[in-house]
Amino acid sequence: MNIQSDDVLLVIDVQNDFCPGGALAVADGDAVVPVVNRLAERFEHVVLTQDWHPNGHSSFATSHPGSAPFSSITMPYGPQTLWPDHCVQGTPGAAFHPQLATEKAELVIRKGFRSAIDSYSAFFENDRTTPTGLAGYLRERGLKRIVMAGLATDFCVNYSALDARRLGFETVVVLAGCRAIDLAGSLAAASAGMAAAGVALLDDLA
Ligand code: VGL
Ligand code: ZN
Question: Does 111 qualify as catalytic in the annotation?
Fold first, then answer.
C-alpha cells in the first residue's frame, strides 16, 4: 500500500488502562506502541481516539450490582458487555501510553463520555446512530482512506472499521499494530465481520 496525502492514520485507544498493568489490560497491548509510532512517522495525517468515561459509567460492571465484569446486559440500545472500571476521565489509566508519539496528532477524538451509552466506535456511539463528529471532520478535510491500528482489535478497532466502511471510507486495519481482548471468540468473529464488510486486513504496511 502506497501512503497518500489524503490518507489518515486513525489510532484507537492506545491508553494505559488497555496496556499490561491497566484496569482492562489487553494481552501484549503495549506491543502496538512501537508499531503505531513507526506508522505515524509515515502519515501526513494522524488522528487519535481516547476512551473517556465519567465515573459510574453505565458500561462499568460496578454500576450494575450483581453483574460480573465481562458479562452482558441489555441496554435500551442493545446488548452491552460490562467492563471493569477503565479510562475514567482525568485518571492515569485514561492517559495515552507514555511512549506513544502523540505530537503529530491533528485531532484527538474522545468517546464514551456520556454516562448512559458506551462508544466503541470512533464514529458512532453504541446505538450506532449518535455521531462523534469524526466522519464530518474527515470529509471536510478531504481525507478519504482510513488506516487503523490500536486497541482492541475485536472491540473498538472492529466497530470503528465497520462504521468506516458503512460511511463509505476505504478502510485498512494494520494487524501488527493491534491486539485483541478475545472474549469468547470475539477476535475470530471480528476478523470475519471486517473482511466481509470490505475492510482490508493487512499484517503490516510494507
Ligand atoms: C474498549 C472495551 C471497553 C476498546 C473500550 O478500546 O476496545 N473495549 N472500552
Ligand atoms: Zn471503554
Answer: yes
Give, as one character, the DSSP assignment of residue 68. Answer: P
Contact 73, 80 (CB under 8 A): yes
Residue 12 vs residues 8, 72, 80: alpha-carbon distances, Å = 12, 23, 20
Tens of pLDDT, residues 5-57: 999 999 999 999 999 999 999 999 999 999 999 999 999 999 999 999 999 99
AA letter at 101: A
Ligand 1: nearest atom to the Cα of 53: 9
Mean pLDDT within 88-94: 98
Marked catalytic residue, from 111, 118, 154, 178: 111
Long-range Cβ pairs for the range 199-203 (8 Å, 24+): 199/161, 199/162, 199/164, 199/165, 199/171, 199/172, 199/173, 200/170, 200/171, 200/172, 200/173, 201/173, 201/175, 202/1, 202/172, 202/173, 202/174, 202/175, 203/174, 203/175, 203/176
Cα separation, 122 vs 41, whole angstroms: 22
- Residue 87 annotated as catalytic: no
Catalytic residue among 19, 87, 156, 178: 156
CA–centroid distance, 5 to ligand 1, in Å, is: 29
